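A brief tutorial aside. Many learners find it easier to grasp structure tokens once they have seen a single protein encoded end to end. The record that follows does exactly this for NADH-quinone oxidoreductase subunit L. Read the sequence first, then the structure, and try to relate runs of similar tokens to stretches of the chain.
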Amino acid sequence: MIVLASLVALLPFGAAFAGMLLGPRLTRALSGPREPRRTEERQAVAGQIEAGHAEARPAEAPRPPRPPHPLRNGPALIACAPVAASLVLAAIVAFTVWRDPGPRTGTLALVQTGSVPIRVGLQVDGLSAVVGLMVCCVALAVHVYSVSYMAEDPRYSSYAAFISMFTAAMLLVVFAGDLLLLYVGWEVMGICSYFLIGHHWEDRANSRAAVKAFLVTRLGDVGFLLGILVLGVGARTFSIDGVLSRVADLPDATLTAAALLLLAGVAGKSAQFPLHTWLPDAMAGPTPISALIHAATMVAAGVYVVARLYGVFLNAPGALGVLGVVAVVSMVGSALAALAQDDLKRVLAYSTISQLAVMAAGLAVGAKTAAIFHLLAHGAFKALLFLAAGCVIVVAGSNLLAAYGGLRRGMPITFWSMTAGFAALAGIPPFSGWFSKDSVIEAAQHAALHGGDSASTAGWFAYTPLREYPLRTPGAGGAHPAPVWTYRLVEPVVPASVAWLVYLGLLVTVVLTAAYATRAWLMTFFGEPRGTYEIADPPRIMSWTVAALAVPATVLGFFGSGASELRPHLGSALLGVVLAGLGAAAAFLVWNRDPAADPARALGRARPMLARAFYVDELYAAVIVRPAEALARHVVIFDGRRIDGAVTGAGRGARWLGGRLRLQVNGNPQTYLTGLVAGVVVIAAGVVIFR
């Protein structure tokens, strides 16, 4: 099993290097002999012109090369084939774990450091198996989609290679059995996101967005690394199993500090307040990259790490309380911002922040299974929405909602697929988002009504039998084991006030999500066309990929019926449907008054503030960016005038002193002899006089 998991991560890793080095060569090899160039023809015409047999013609502009056929596209084949193989292996791993639950661990190497050893190993269990399967599915869809979407891109080879590396890094995070190995994959994802967001670096906006994403996530990663070190040193091991098994022996202060530091990295990677500002700007990158980042990698990694180290957070209720508050601010604030966005991709970006906060809220109230279920459902419908948005953008030539309208008539595949995605996002039954959101809402309702307590049953993808992760007993120095597949905390997971805040925030988010999803859906596919472009579905590779993703976005929710906490509960399910219906109806009524206008006009004076996401970027620019730039300018001036001046002055002083001293060293032997004789006379006179 460990060997299979290793191959799942290694195949995309190898594809990244092979695609970068061999992709163009394979394309040339598969294309056969090149078509004869037009050089000979042009030379013949030139000769005729010189002989007077032909008229001179203006030079033709060079035609861009035709994109290779998908089956002759070397980088595409090198990228898609290994990821497809990884998907097959990941499915085998997931099926095996489903049939025989339980963790499998394997150590590839043991590094002795003189203090805490580092175990380079992997761990396969239900949680890692199902998330790894989701990552491979979305990565393969993005690769296949990109074959057509990026067909004319001159840097497609590096693009495909970085996607493979991105996928391998996320799979390393998923299957890592050691915290430091997990951190390696965590950081590789960060650098890959920098290169992919800034793929079209010649556009200044793209390069700035890449730098912003890199710096903001690095800021959170500082805390994340410190949290790993605190846990590893405290538990005397970096093994995830070892850390979780020794949680009960760690001091409360150590656990709380480590959990809060880890949350800093989670907030950066999963784009949660206050480190969320990089994600909307990251929409400057190619649309398939947005799908990969938002659905299966990077932003999902933060939520996954909290679930993987959930035993730490359960014993640090203060950190869970912070997570709950951050989740509420992120989910409601981002949903409000999505209501006022003019750019379709930015609508989906703020939607991602909000939905990730829903998962974080589930983790905060003790509903780990529901949170992971929503992570899987979100991976399906958000990949669908972004890739469908790419289809719309290719046809319309614009990201702006105002440029769309009436697209359903000429783009039936995209319309029905995106309809399924928006329905899942809004939580409309029987689509996947309805099942997963209802599970989170039900858990939050239970926590609010029972004073923050949470009773949860682990599903088949629990990372290990929970009896191995002891929970603290109030007033006792040790720990008590919980039943094998269930746990019930003696103390509330979070304070009742936080549980109520999370519950009410979730209900508000359901309304807002349905409203902005309905607005984007109506402005894109209904009303009169607002452009002069031809409305038709994009190439089949793109449209078929989108249609394939519509299947899990529609039916994935039914796969959770095997666990009682993932089945719809009448009260919360009915309440969620009613609230979603209210939000969708409000957006429809405003749009129906004037289908040619933007329903966001109903926001009135609040719209500019929401469109700018409450001016958080402007606040950071005023409080952090501009002062840092001013300090940098003063440092440059001080360096140039003081430090460089001191060094330059020392050099000038040495040259001046040397110039004065060299006056006696002029190269004239007579001067040297005269000085020598004069010195001898002075010495002799001194000896005679003072003898």
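Self-check: The beta strands are 104-111, 118-124, 455-457, 471-472, 479-480, 486-488. If you spotted this yourself, you are ready for the next section.
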